[in-house]
Amino acid sequence: MAGSYDTPGSANDVAIDGNYAYVADGTNGGLQVIDIGDPSQPTYRGSYNTPGSANGVAIDGDRAYVADGAAGGLQVIDIGDPSQPAPRGSYNTPGSAQGVAIAGDRAYVADNGGGLQIIDISQYWSPSLVSSYDTPGFAYDVALSGDYAYVADSGGGLQVVDIADPAEPTYAGSCNPPELNAAKDVVICGDYAYVTDHASGLHALDISDPTSPTPGDVFAATAPQAVAVEGDFACLAGGEYGLLVLDVADVVVPPVLVGTCDTPSRASGVAVSGDYAYVADTWGLYVIDISDPASPQYAGDCDPLVRADDIVVAGDYAYVAGADGLEVLDISDPSSPVSVGSWEHTGWAGQGLAVAGDYAYVGGHQETEGFKLVVLDVSDPANPTVVASVLLPAHHWPRSVAVAGNVAYVGSGEGFLVFDIGDPTSPVLVGTCPTNYDVVDIAIARDHAYLAASFSGLAVVDVSNPTAPVVLWYTPTYDRATSVDIAGDYAFVADSQGGLSVLWIGSPGFPAPIIARLDTPGSAVDVALAGDHAYVADREEGLQVVEVFERLYDLERDLVQSLVIDQSDEVIYAASIT
To answer: In CA terms, which of 4, 20, 237, 516 is 20 to 30 Å from 266?
Structure first.
């Protein structure tokens, strides 16, 4: 165990955002905000005592959405200042709010006897009902994937609801075998739903066809409360064992190319959301339907004003950065993306984009202005507004940007820069780390920054102390590392002519070995992971879909570690799973 914090109530749910854990802490605790910047010493940062019983929590930007039981319904809480959470809105659901998930401008609430409640939060200060769906049991939790909501419905097992039209949710499918009659928590990973059952344990269900979920193996456990899946591991909390870590997937060695979809010119960036991959191509933004990964299909496109070099998807919007600025596209209808706003800056050469909450962080260069990190307020997508423009040190031409919590990381040809963005309108440079390679992409995981370091391969930097980042090692790859994404104990690197490389990072203190590689047909320049697949922007060869994980059904034989914890109201923030 790395650390714990004794909350005043009964810790029912937790959401992690950057250096903070947001705990739904029952009747007496409300929303508790815990600083986990040092996981070994979590400390109290702030709280808000909700009117009901805080059962579930989801984070979206600067707001926490709390499922607050019968008395509180859905509570909207401003966490822009984590030390002073403040109420901003609420909606009184008809049942007893138990769990919540957010997608775009909608909150999906598992409302116990009230079934699934779909709530419009576009005006978060005054949420309003969009529709509801009466499940046969008692809805305790909800998870979203593509056009479907998956509801842990107690005696109703797993209920699958089609939410393609949130105003008219309809039954899609269900899985309710006799041993799954007390479903309490659900998470989705690729083609699988992991459901805790209070009576029988953890169930793995195949949802490759959402209309016909298929029961798989069961890991027997007494009274499990919650499950979280990260890469190839599932963490099962509650019950007689405390915390269990299960191996629920095998990495595929070597990775298998399962599908491809060409784009008109050169694919340079890719982001995945639900059943769609969004590809930044020299000629525009292309939307690919990946509901069947083996047969990706063109779904729509848009010709943005700026040249599409980098792309981030957040909710109903895609943010595209490149030459001449930033553009915001409405993708609520993926088949017809529409430009709704832009920040145009003539002569701007943009490289690096991150979006967090109401802000976009863009790296770039303008001949008369030098190298900069620009922060834009995108709370109104139709009017991105510059709120900060920070001049970078000499020669630090930005190549990549990443954000985790209150910290922004900027990679350049000269090194690695760390900014405190606790106040996004006034970023402060707090740490630097010189390198002898281009930092082309950055992925943050478990107090480490993983850098796609061009011809130097993959590098890892210890960022546990943001003011003093330290390079630990680097592993040369086959060609030029341009992008990296992390899942569990594995790093997936887009390696240009070297294709897709897979490295084991289970021991971050030691150089990562390359355990597998796939030679893609083009030049792999960007990679995004979703479920069991890696989606690769492969330049002239468009989008490549690669199977990188294979889910396991044999859960009984795949226990990695168990950790006995106090079954009271302690929240456990970290445990070794390597």
So the answer is: 516
